[in-house]
Structures are given as structure tokens and as C-alpha cells.
């Protein structure tokens, strides 16, 4: 992640998600994971740095893949993107893993917090920093059926008169 001024430009989050999905496609196949995209085709633009927002999506996808390493159930990661009110959009990554361990729930987005031995525990912290620099919020939740969803919101691009 680079320091300094953010280069905020109008961009399509749909395009950013699609680029990352293509990037991880072979890794998903090797792991036996299906990635499904459920993206509202009418999403407005956001104002952001495309590379940084791609980094967030990449971190969330790779974490979802890792969460399913020991899973024998349906190995599916679903990425959704839709409007949230008039001036925000929400991107969510849902895995079919075992959920977030309770011991880590309050620390997930702090540096060096990890439940996996092969991780430095920086991806979610970096993701939080990027999302907050873009005026958004990031959070995680365990779902009723044991899996987890990580979501972030971003403000949409305001049309200029």
C-alpha cells in the first residue's frame, strides 16, 4: 500500500471485482472452490483508487478461500455488490467455511491478528485502512449456518452539476 495522496477517480466497483475474480480464478480451481458473482448491474460509480479497492476485494477473497481449506461442504464463495440506500454501495464476500472464531471476533481488523498459522494477519487491517480512507466501513459477521460474511460499504460518486 502506498503512502501519500489518494488518487480518487470515478470508477466502477463492478469492474474492480471482475478483475480480481479473474486474477484468483486459477487459485479457486486448484482449491476446488467456486466463486459466484451477484452484482447489481445498475451500481453507481464510486470515487476511489482502483488498485487499492482491488486489494480489499483480493484480501477478502483469499481469506474466504483460506477459511474453507478444511471444509468438505459446498466450497462456494459468493461476492455480492448492491446499493445500500441512496448514497452508498455494499460489497460482501461470503464463504462456506466454519465462521470467525469467537476469540478473534473483536480483533479481526487489528494488525497481526490471525487464526491461521500461514498468515501474517495484515490483510484485514490493510483492508480496513483502505476502506476507511475511501470514506467507507468494513465489518464481519458469522451467519446462522456457520459461515462468515465480510462486507464493506463505500459512498457513491456524487454527480456534479
Describe the structure.
The chain has about 160 residues and is an alpha+beta fold. The chain has a single domain, classed as Histidine kinase-like ATPase, C-terminal domain (Heat Shock Protein 90). It is about 30% helix and about 25% strand. The protein is built from 3 helices and 7 strands, in the order βαββαββαββ. The strands form 2 sheets. It has a 5-stranded mixed sheet. The chain has a two-stranded antiparallel sheet with strand order 1-3. Strand 4 and strand 5 form a beta hairpin. Helix 1 (about 15-30) packs parallel to helix 2. The longest helix has 19 residues, at about 15-30. The protein is globular, with a radius of gyration of 15 Å.
List the helices and strands and how they pair.
Layout: E1 9-11, H1 13-31, E2 34-39, E3 46-48, H2 50-67, E4 76-83, E5 88-94, H3 123-133, E6 137-142, E7 148-155
Amino acid at each position: 500500500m502506498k503512502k501519500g495522496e489518494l488518487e480518487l477517480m470515478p470508477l466502477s466497483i463492478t469492474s474492480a471485482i471482475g478483475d480480481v475474480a479473474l486474477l484468483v480464478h486459477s487459485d479457486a480451481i486448484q482449491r476446488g472452490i467456486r466463486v459466484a458473482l451477484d452484482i447489481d448491474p445498475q451500481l453507481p460509480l464510486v470515487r476511489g483508487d482502483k488498485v487499492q479497492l482491488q486489494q480489499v476485494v483480493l484480501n477478502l477473497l483469499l481469506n474466504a478461500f483460506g477459511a474453507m481449506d478444511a471444509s468438505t461442504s459446498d466450497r462456494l464463495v459468493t461476492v455480492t455488490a448492491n446499493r445500500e440506500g441512496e448514497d452508498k454501495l455494499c460489497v460482501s464476500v461470503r464463504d462456506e467455511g466454519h465462521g470467525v472464531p469467537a476469540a478473534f471476533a473483536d480483533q479481526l481488523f487489528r494488525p497481526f491478528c490471525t487464526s491461521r498459522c500461514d498468515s501474517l494477519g495484515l490483510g484485514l487491517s490493510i483492508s480496513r485502512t483502505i476502506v476507511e480512507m475511501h470514506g467507507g466501513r468494513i465489518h464481519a459477521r458469522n451467519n446462522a449456518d456457520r459461515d462468515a460474511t465480510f462486507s464493506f460499504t463505500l459512498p457513491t460518486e456524487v454527480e456534479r452539476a
